[in-house]
Amino acid sequence: MSELLTRRHGLEFLLAELGGSRMADPGASVTIRGDLGHINLRGRASDAGFLPPVEKLLGQALPIEPNTVSGERHQVFWLGPDEWLIVTPAAGALELAERLRQATSGTHASVNDISGGQIALMLQGAECRELLAKGCALDLHPSVFAAGDCAQSGLARANVLLALMDATPTFMIVVRRSFSDYLCRWLAHAGSDVGIAFRDA
Amino acid sequence: MLLIECPWCGERAETEFSYGGEAGITRPADPGALSDAEWADYLFNRSNTRGAHRELWNHAQGCRRWFGVERDTVTYRISGSFRLSGASDNREA
Amino acid sequence: MQPQRLPTGGRIDRSKPLIFRFDGRKFEGYAGDTLASALLANGVSIVGRSFKLRRPRGIVGGGAEEPNAIMQIGKGAHAQPNLRATQVELYDGLVARATKGWPGARFDLGAINDAFGKVFSAGFYYKTFMRPKSWWHLYERVIRASAGFGRAPVEKDPDHYEHRNAHCDVLVAGGGPAGLAAALAAGQAGARVMLADEQNEFGGSLLGAKRNVGDAPAEEWLRRTIESLAALDNVTLLPRSTVFGYYDHNFLAIAERCTDHLPEADRAGVRQRLWRVRAKQVVLAQGAFERPLAFCNNDRPGVMLASAVSQYIRRYAVRPGRRAVVFTNNDSAYETALDLAEAGSSVVIVDSRAGGAGPLGERAAQAGISVIAGHVVTDVVGRRRVRGVQVAGWSGNPAYLVESSIRIDCDLVAMSGGWSPAVHLHSHAGGRNVWDAERHCFVPGETTQANVSAGSCNGTLSLRGCLREGNESGRAAASRCGFEAPDIELPSTSEGHENPLQPLWRVPADAEPERCPKQFLDYQNDTSVADIRLAVREGYRNVEHVKRYTALGFGTDQGKLGNINGMAVLAECLGKSIPEVGTTTFRPAYTPVTFGVGAGENVGDLYDPVRKTAIHEWHVAAGAPMENVGQWHRPWYFPRDNEDLHTAVARECQAARQSLGIMDASTLGKIDARGPDVVDFLERIYTHNVGTMKVGRCAYGIMLGEDGMVMDDGVMARVGEQRFYLTTTTGGAANVLAWLESWLQTEWPELEVFLTSLTDQFSTIAVVGPNSRRVLEKLGCSIDLDKDSFPFMTVRDAELGGYPVQLFRVSFSGELAFEINIDSSYALQMWKTVMAAGEEFGITPYGTETMHVLRAEKGFVIVGQDTDGSVTPVDLGMNWLLSKDKDFLGKRSLARPDCVRDDRKQLVGLLSPDNGTVLPEGTQLVETPDAPVPVPMCGHVTSSYMSACLGHPIALALVAGGRARKAETIYAALPGREPMPVTVTAPVFYDPKGERQHV
């Protein structure tokens, strides 16, 4: 692919609009990770033609336990009993998708690069659990939703994949591209009482 | 608001799910061989149970799996969820 | 300044005087007051007018049960109607207005209604305003103006409301002694606890009573308990928070009032918060309501609940009267008598029981209070304020008539008819209530959810019992969540035994209820004993019907105050027992909640998600007005130089037909379908033959519901032997994917197919018009675009202008056209690149309106506009799409007798002879212009536009048996106009042979 092509995550206009929100000590901060690629992977874990070659290629195990993340070379999220999301640097995503396709060519599997279709937001800060609780019905108490856990649910009125990446806490919110503008506006509004800052990765 | 147990994701709020009606309605193998009345029965008639009702739910906002729930239509108490036969189950892999 | 304020005591802060206004008059109160206590301190006795009879009314209660002091609080956009003054914390500058009474509560022009009290009996509205029927709209206007409480502000609500989801092990509803004990036990066990109470302070009944806990005043126990709770990280304390609804599976809703108690200038941040709580266990500790007694004129200002009188004295240091008569059928009101005596009022106790009270009676005697046992208050003297009562002896004989009575002068009647446990939340949860024949009240029975009632809402009225039940229920709830509470020793309390209550549902009088002054059961709705009796005489038997006929328990009351007395009177009339009659159903909300807190943050721009395409900002910059399509915002048209819609669309249509147009079609649903069985699967879904499609071919496909009706449509392409790319309508994307998954997972799990949504991954740019090929060639395309290499209805992977794309040769306009599918990350650049290259061809961006005109000229339908879920493919003339070689979903239904009728509504075109009128979409079609009403309809217009290319309006319509009626004239029924004749045509108006798209 041409080097001239630069990816746009679609929130550039919104960032410019919210640009003034660089505050000293926000209760929450959002980092827009347009630099990450997303690959949707479908296959049966019980299929000898699927799991071993995929795990060999990725160099890590796929999370088989529902709603968990396997985070080593790539961040791999459980989405369903036969569905995973691989989050990896955008630059290598297309190539990784192609290699996954080849590795699983002998069996019933599906690999789709969806880097342009969704966006990862990293939410950090002391107040982010309270902020998420305004729009998400999941129980995010540390004793229930721990680092390495993920869940697909609703945040405000958008569907999201929510994951706790570390206990600082850092949450990853993955949202479909067309909903990302709405979701960021909601976060900006809901976070206005604790202070919220947005930045590009 | 109901609390529904997805067989994969555990208990989640009703808002994450969509309802699929009565479970166990099987599509006739050869619809063309059916009389109008038989086809209408498959299409329109449901048991409308009072009490324990087996029904389909889809974890629409979550893992997108369809599964069964046994729910009391009077008290709304849910006695359990079950996977449909043939459903993917990578934990049994 | 505050004539009824006591010099010492209470939980008010005399160093913080607050100024407020009521009905325009200025008053002073103190920090810690409620609006009600401050009004009483100022000697205001009339705070409102009754609903129907407009009788002057005073404050009766001390909390949520208050029926009369219903206020409009605040001004302008911040105003809230329907608040109980007893629950409104006083703040500096508060402005209150009685919601009943015009021009004010003190002097009300509506009071004349009382003089016609006999007319305004139960069922008054139903009887009076029925005839003549045609006058109802006149009656309604007057009734509406005089009904209801308060006025909703007309301005946009400027305040910030929010929702908060929460989870806990144990939710405790109510922070009185039982609730506090429960929260403490569960909290100390380590459970995640939430404790919500509607008041500003925790403590419940302890705040308004003189009690000891252990060897210290109750305040000391309260202080220590609240400190202990606040120190626990696992306990969330929510004061000013009403648990107003208990829904399925232990889901509860709490309305928290965050800033309503502050002066308006000091309010910042969230005004009210809705807590949506999922609790593993719930402890209900809502307390109990004291019952009024139903004697004549028991609604006169100055007749109050005994416990409320105590509360005003103890908590607010307000003495509601100087000469009091305490009228009771139980022991608890003796404490009120003692409180009154201590406050310096003279007191007489009238006790219906011949034997009087237990140890409290002795204490009353020691305090010099005279007790008239075996007597009842039969009537009240005074109109705008109690001036005295009539007291008569009563033997307890069920005969409800008394002989002679004496008058006692007084300015206050403190009444107690016993206690009704607040079983509301228990009932919301689906629990039953059972009659306790010993305590003469409904208590919570079997529950269907994980909750337990503790304390006085469970019928346990003693402080000792409340503390014990609270502790036990808190421990048990925590234990069920896996947390074991340490043993604690419960503090002792100083209560003696009580003599039993004497049931007294209506008080004897010197005449039958119909012939004596009204004995009110429900103050707010003016429901009296006579009204219940009338309802029964008129044939009502069921308690729910009687409630609706008499309005008993309507409004903000919701069965808090008069419910039990009403049920009992009904039972008496029917000759049944109270449990046989039963109670009405309690439903959320427990007290009224604002629309604001219900809406939360889902208002304004955040009302519903706005979905935007990757090219959205370009459209905005180009000045395109947006149209909502589902949640998407799509450009409607692109006006140049202040063009209106009509002019812009005419220009856009001509450009697309004559040279080059460009449209953002990214909102189409897109699904990747692959797997060994994908052909087999799609054969069952689509009506056409899928298996015969060669790789690289596209097809227009429709899918039907099993009922045979068209569900969705779109182009689908075979992009590999075992791989298809499906497109759906914009609005149908999510539903179609869910529908396909449902068949795969529930019906055909043996089919190996994976479906993945690519709707957001790919943006779609439609390049339309005779010059579309040229502009793509100019950009540099890696494949040949000529009609033999890349024919109509095919798809190719390509590189276009340096971008990897999937190129479709499809057309939704009937012109030569291409659709560029591109990774959304590059879509905006691609769009700009095509725009730049197309400049020499006059490239014209167009929006949804032009798209509609172009497709309607071709007779292409929009599912959901030209169909409505009752239209088959045969109705649309799409028989050619229905495979005879296979089964597909819905096929069998097409042979149902109803689906093969000749007179089904079928898709046709309509032309109007005047060539000028664009028929409104939805216009009804009729056979003849002068048929008598009701005129039978023969169809309706589904799509209608002015066609710039044809120079006249066009319309698509569904017309009964329409295909056989070409060239016939039918009539369009236009509001306010003569029916207009229209001619039925084929639904394709432009290029009927379809030559233009094949070039």
Describe this structure in words.
The complex is a heterotrimer of chains A (201), B (93) and C (999). Chain A is an alpha+beta fold. Chain A contains 5 helices and 11 strands, in the order H-E-E-H-E-E-E-H-E-E-H-E-E-E-H-E. In chain A, strands 8-9-10-7-1-11 form a 6-stranded mixed β-sheet. A 5-stranded antiparallel β-sheet of chain A has the order 3-4-5-2-6, with helices on one face. Chain A has 2 domains: 12-35 and 117-200, 2-Layer Sandwich (Gyrase A, domain 2); 36-113, 2-Layer Sandwich (Alpha-Beta Plaits), CATH 3.30.70. In chain A, strand 9 (158-166) and strand 10 (170-176) form a beta hairpin. Helices cover 24% and strands 33% of the residues of chain A. By secondary structure, chain B is mostly beta strands. Chain B has a domain at 1-23 and 48-86: 2-Layer Sandwich (Folate-binding fold), CATH 3.30.2270. Chain B has one helix spanning 36-44, and strands at 3-6, 10-13, 18-22, 52-58, 66-72, 78-83. A 4-stranded antiparallel β-sheet of chain B has the order 3-4-5-6, with no helix packed on it. A two-stranded antiparallel ribbon of chain B has the order 1-2. In chain B, a hairpin with a 5-residue loop joins strand 5 and strand 6. Chain C has 999 residues and is α+β, with helices and mostly antiparallel strands. Chain C folds into 6 domains: 160-288 and 421-480, FAD/NAD(P)-binding domain (3-Layer(bba) Sandwich), CATH 3.50.50; 292-417, FAD/NAD(P)-binding domain, CATH 3.50.50; 510-600, BFD-like [2Fe-2S]-binding domain (Arc Repressor Mutant, subunit A, Orthogonal Bundle), CATH 1.10.10; 620-667 and 761-855, Gyrase A, domain 2 (2-Layer Sandwich); 669-757, 2-Layer Sandwich (Alpha-Beta Plaits), CATH 3.30.70.1400; 894-998, Elongation Factor Tu (Ef-tu), domain 3 (Beta Barrel), CATH 2.40.30. In chain C, 21% of the residues lie in helices and 27% in strands. In chain C, helix 7 (333-342) packs parallel to helix 8 (359-366). The mean pLDDT of chain C is 94. At the A-B interface, strand 8 of A face strand 2 of B.
